[in-house]
Amino acid sequence: MTRGIGVPAKESGISKLDESNIVSLFGYTPEQILRFIYEHEERESGMKGEDKGVYHGHPRFYELLDMMRDIHDRKSHDYAGDKTDPLKNFRLCENQGIPAWQGVLVRLSDKFSRLQAFARQGELKVKDESVVDTFLDNAVYSLLGLILFEETLEKIEPEEKQYEILPGIGHTPDGRECKLAKEVER
């Protein structure tokens, strides 16, 4: 028998789904999960006209976006500690000559490695970060990496700027090599 995450209940140590198991798996209490859902529904009900409830994607996706917003707000407060630059902590690697967006790649690889280990072993020993937390952190890091990457592109001279992230990345539309491509190849 599996418990929704593809891990047999026996292997995952879950014999029944109670509050401690929910917190262990999802990193949030049932009350917090319900609050996220309630806030999402409240925002949706406040929409006007055509926007109200018109989603084409999976409803859970939008709930998770709300959770990601909350995670980003809380972690920006705790890690960056700077209202003028919520990504200050990600930029610290620039002091060692590593572009901030590449520093995010290291964080992403750590989270991905954790998920791979969970998939192989069926359990996580560190209990203060759930599987759901790790997936959400990956999603948030991906977006923050994109923001930092876009900032890097904005610093490139206009005639060398990439206009689309397409096959052949690192080249301008006329085929010249872009400064960013040299940086990526390092």
Structure keywords:
8 helices, disordered N terminus, disordered C terminus, globular, about 190 residues, mainly alpha, single chain
SSE layout and pairings?
Layout: H1 9-12, H2 19-26, H3 30-45, H4 59-80, H5 88-91, H6 100-121, H7 131-155, H8 179-185
Helix pairs in contact: 3-4, 4-7, 6-7
The N- to C-terminal Cα distance equals: 48 Å
Tally of discrete structural domains? 1
Give the helix/strand class: mainly alpha
Largest sheet: none
Estimate the mean pLDDT confidence. 74
**Strand residue percentage:** under 5%
Helix coverage percent: 55-70%
Unreliable residue runs: 1-15, 162-168, 181-186
User: How many individual helices?
Assistant: 8
Written account of the structure:
The chain has helices at about 10, 20-25, 30-45, 60-80, 90, 100-120, 130-155, 180-185. It has about 190 residues and is an all-alpha fold. The longest helix has 25 residues, at about 130-155. It is globular and about 45 Å long. The N and C termini lie far apart (about 50 Å). Mean pLDDT is about 75; it is low at about 1-15, about 160-170 and about 180-185.
